[in-house]
Design goal:
Chain B: InterPro entries: AAA+_ATPase, ABC_transporter-like_ATP-bd, BCAA_Transport_ATP-bd_LivF, P-loop_NTPase. The complex is a heterodimer of chains A (296) and B (234). With 296 residues, chain A is mostly helical. Chain A has helices at 2-32, 40-53, 60-83, 91-112, 139-161, 163-173, 175-180, 185-211, 220-233, 238-258, 261-264, 267-281; strands at residues 118-119, 129-132, 135-138, 213-214. In chain A, α1 (2-32) packs parallel to α5 (139-161), α1 (2-32) runs antiparallel to α8 (185-211) and α3 (60-83) crosses α4 (91-112). Chain A is globular. Chain B has helices at residues 40-48, 70-75, 93-100, 108-121, 123-126, 138-150, 168-183, 195-201, 219-224, 226-232, and strands at residues 2-11, 14-24, 29-34, 55-60, 63-64, 78-81, 156-160, 187-191, 204-209, 212-218. The chains are: A mainly alpha (296), B alpha/beta (234).
Chain lengths: 296, 234
C-alpha cells in the first residue's frame, strides 16, 4: 500500500512539473510554429533571482513572486530580443537567435555570478514530510501537485474564458485570419511569451526545491523534458502537452521503481526507447489538435 | 471610397498582379471576375493589408493605406473573408463571432446588437452557438466567416469566392445574404467564379486577366459582352 501511494505521489508531482513546462513550450510553438530554445533559461533566471534575493530579509513568498515575475520578464525579453526582429524574415534565423539568446543568458550567469552551484533560499515547509497511507512523503511533492492544479485551472480559465485567451487559441490555428479580424499579432505573441514565462517561473520554484541550488546550465534538462513531453503529447495541442508531461513522468518513475540498481544509470536510454516506440505508433503525438499548416 | 492605382503585387519573383486600378463608391457592390491566376484574390489581400504592393497605391477615403497591417485596416472598417473559409475550428460558433468583434469588444451593446443582427440573417448559426466551428458543414462555415467579418461592423467587406465548393442550393442562399448585407449599407467587393450570379447582383464589374484589368463597366454591360466570357470563364 505504502509503496503505491509513494509511487502515485511521485508520478503526480513529477508529472505536474513536466506538464507545466511542456505547456509553456507549446503555447509559443502553437502560435509561432517555432520552438523557443531559450525557454530553459527562464528557469535559470528565476533561480538566480531567488539566489540574489536570498540575502534580503524579505519573506520567501515575496522572493518567489519576484522570481516568477523575473521569469515572465525574461520570457517577454526573449520575444523582443530573439524573435521579433527576425520573426517575419526566416525560420532558420529565429532558430539561431533563440539559441544565441539562451547562450547569452547562460554566459551572463557564468560571468557575473559563478559557474559553481549556488544555493537558493527555500522555505522550511519544503523539507517537511507527511505520512500518507503508511508512506513518508516530502511535503513539497504535495505542494507541487497543488500548485500545478491551481496553475492548470488558471491557465485553462485564461485560454477558455478570456478574449485574450481565445485570441491566442485562434492565432494558434489561423494566424493571418486572426490578424484580419483585428487581433494584433504582437499582442498575442507577447502574451504567449509572458504566459510561458509564468509557467516556467512557477515550475522553477519546485524544480529548485528538489535540487536546492542553481547552476548556469540548469535550463537544459527542463527544456529537454518539456520538448519530449510535447512531442509525445502532440505539438499542436495544449491538452497534449499536459498528457505528455504526465505520461513521461509515469515512464520515468516506473523505471526508477522497477529497474535493478545496476541498470538504473541507463534509465534515460530506456525512457527514450519507449518514447521512440510511442512515436512510431503515433507519429503526430497522442493528441492531434486542430490542423494547422501555415507558419507565420 | 476605395481607390486602387496601378498596383503591382508579387510573391517573391512571381508577379500575381501587374497593373490593376479600380475605384469603388460608398454603398456599391462591385465584382472582380477573371480566370484562375488572374490576380483577383491577390488584389483583395492587398486591400486587407495581407499583401504589400510592390508599386502603386491603395487609398481608403483619400488616405494611403498601402503600408498598413491587417489589424490596423480592420480598425479602419475593412473586413476580409478569405476563400480558405478560415473558421477557428476548435472554438465554438459563439467564440468565433466574439473574436470577429475583437477591436470593438468594449462596445458591449453594439456588439450584442451586431450579434442579434447576424443571428437574424444567419438563423442556422443561432441554433449552433455552442458547437465547435470545425464541426459545421461547408455552407455553415461560409455563413460563419461572413457573419464573423460583419461583427467588426465594417464599411467595406471583401468577399473572396464565397460560393466555392458549395451545393447549388446553398450558393443561392449565400448570394441572397450578400444582397441583404448590401441593402444594410455595407460596400462590398466580391470575387467570384460564379460569374453569371455575381453579375446579376452587382452594380459594376472589373474583369482581370493575367494581372491587368481587361475590361470594366456596369455589370449589365459586362454580361452583355460575349467577347469577355472567354476571359472570365477561363
Amino acid at each position: 500500500m505504502a509503496v503505491y501511494v509513494q509511487f502515485l505521489i511521485d508520478v503526480l508531482s513529477l508529472g505536474s512539473l513536466y506538464a507545466l513546462m511542456a505547456l509553456g513550450l507549446v503555447i509559443v510553438y502553437g502560435i509561432l510554429k517555432l520552438v523557443n530554445f531559450a525557454y530553459g533559461e527562464l528557469i535559470m533566471v528565476a533561480g538566480y533571482s531567488l539566489f540574489l534575493l536570498g540575502g534580503t530579509p524579505l519573506p520567501w513568498l515575496v522572493m518567489a513572486a519576484i522570481a516568477v515575475l523575473m521569469a515572465i520578464g525574461a520570457g517577454i525579453a526573449t520575444e523582443y530580443a530573439a524573435f521579433r526582429p527576425v520573426r517575419s524574415k526566416s525560420v532558420t534565423a529565429v532558430l539561431i537567435t533563440s539559441f544565441a539568446f539562451s547562450t547569452l543568458l547562460q554566459n551572463a550567469a557564468l560571468l557575473f555570478i559563478s559557474p559553481r552551484a549556488r544555493t537558493v533560499p527555500l522555505p522550511d515547509i519544503f523539507s517537511d514530510t507527511v505520512v500518507l497511507g503508511g508512506a513518508t512523503i516530502p511535503l513539497r511533492n504535495i505542494l507541487t501537485i497543488v500548485a500545478a492544479a491551481i496553475m492548470l485551472a488558471i491557465f485553462s480559465f485564461i485560454m477558455k474564458k478570456t478574449v485574450l485567451g481565445l485570441a491566442m487559441r485562434a492565432a494558434a490555428t489561423k494566424f493571418t485570419m486572426a490578424r484580419m479580424l483585428g487581433i494584433p499579432a504582437n499582442l498575442v505573441i507577447t502574451s504567449a511569451f509572458a504566459l510561458s514565462g509564468l509557467l516556467a517561473g512557477v515550475v522553477s520554484l519546485f524544480w529548485l526545491g528538489r535540487i536546492g541550488s542553481v547552476v548556469p546550465g540548469i535550463g537544459l534538462e527542463p527544456l529537454l523534458v518539456a520538448f519530449i513531453a510535447t512531442v509525445i503529447g502532440g505539438m499542436r495541442s495544449l491538452q497534449g502537452a499536459v498528457v505528455g508531461g504526465f505520461l513521461l513522468a509515469l515512464i520515468v518513475t516506473t523505471f526508477n521503481y522497477s529497474l535493478p540498481p545496476e541498470l538504473l544509470k541507463f534509465r534515460d536510454a530506456f525512457t527514450f526507447s519507449l518514447v521512440i516506440l510511442i512515436l512510431l505508433w503515433r507519429p503526430d503525438g497522442l493528441i492531434k489538435g486542430p490542423a494547422t499548416g501555415q507558419r507565420t | 471610397m476605395l481607390e486602387i492605382e496601378g498596383i503591382e503585387l508579387r510573391y517573391g519573383a512571381v508577379k500575381a498582379v501587374r497593373d490593376v486600378s479600380l475605384r469603388m463608391e460608398q454603398g456599391e457592390l462591385v465584382t472582380l471576375l477573371g480566370a484562375n491566376g488572374a490576380g483577383k484574390s491577390s488584389t483583395l489581400k492587398s486591400i486587407a493589408g495581407v499583401l504589400k504592393p510592390a508599386r502603386g497605391t491603395i487609398r481608403l477615403d483619400g488616405q494611403d493605406i498601402s503600408g498598413l497591417s491587417p489589424e490596423q485596416l480592420v480598425r479602419r472598417g475593412v473586413a476580409m473573408v478569405p476563400e480558405t473559409r478560415d473558421v477557428f475550428p476548435d472554438l465554438t460558433v459563439e467564440e468565433n463571432l466574439q473574436l470577429g468583434a475583437f477591436c470593438r469588444r468594449r462596445d458591449t451593446r453594439g456588439v450584442a446588437a451586431s450579434r442579434e443582427r447576424m443571428f437574424d440573417l444567419f438563423p442556422l448559426l443561432a441554433e449552433r452557438t455552442r458547437q465547435p466551428a470545425g464541426t459545421l458543414s461547408g455552407g455553415q462555415q461560409q455563413q460563419l466567416v461572413i457573419a464573423r467579418a460583419m461583427m467588426s461592423d465594417p464599411r467595406l467587406l471583401l468577399l473572396d469566392e464565397p460560393s466555392l465548393g458549395l451545393a447549388p442550393v446553398i450558393v443561392d442562399r449565400i448570394f441572397e445574404m450578400i444582397v441583404e448585407l448590401r441593402q444594410s449599407g455595407v460596400t462590398i467587393l466580391l470575387v467570384e467564379q460564379n460569374a453569371t450570379k455575381a453579375l446579376k447582383i452587382s452594380d459594376r464589374s472589373y474583369v482581370l486577366s493575367l494581372g491587368r484589368v481587361a475590361a470594366s463597366g456596369t455589370s449589365d454591360d459586362i454580361a452583355a459582352r460575349s467577347d469577355l466570357k472567354s476571359i472570365y470563364l477561363g
